[in-house]
Amino acid sequence: MKKYGLEDCKPVCTPMVTRCGLSQDYDSPTIKKYKYRSMIGILIYPTGTRPDIIHAVGIVGRFQENPKETHLKSIKKIFKYIQCTKYLRLWYPKNTYFALHTYTNAD
Questions:
Q1: N or C terminus: which one in the chain shows less Cβ crowding within 10 Å?
Q2: What's the pTM?
Q3: How large is the angle between the packed helices 54-61 and 69-84, nearest 10 degrees?
Q4: Using an 8 Å Cβ cutoff, are 39 and 73 in contact?
């Protein structure tokens, strides 16, 4: 968050807009690939403990070859969601038996 100047951003309650239709968006200005790929890389790391962002990160990761301003806005929304829910995560204890007892449908 600090690396991209998003530590003081307004938090949001969802990582992506419902029925998000991201596409190539040829009319939007192109952004630097390095910055976009760096942000995707940072978001991939927490997906092991944050399954709530896996789908959103997968969607924005599709546009790494030719990222546009609209794609960058979607990534920033994921960061804002993480800011809002930074204390939510799965915890896998070491050397203990772990069994999943519940199921949640996020749809």
A1: C
A2: 0.74
A3: 160
A4: no
The DSSP annotation for 45-104 comes to: GGGGT-GGGHHHHHHHHTTSSS-BHHHHHHHHHHHHHHHHTTT------TTS--------
The residue to which tokens 């203990």 are assigned: 96
Tell me which residues of the chain have a pLDDT lower than 50: none
For residues 35 and 43, the answer to whether their CB atoms sit within 8 Å is no
Percent of the chain with pLDDT over 90: 1
The per-residue pLDDT for 87 is 79
* Separation CA 98–CA 107 (nearest Å): 25
Task: Extract the tokens encoding 4.
Answer: 């991209």
Interatomic CA distance for residues 106 and 55, integer angstroms: 11
Residue 3's CB is within 10 A of a number of other CB atoms, namely 9
Q: Alpha-carbon distance 12 to 9, whole Å? A: 9
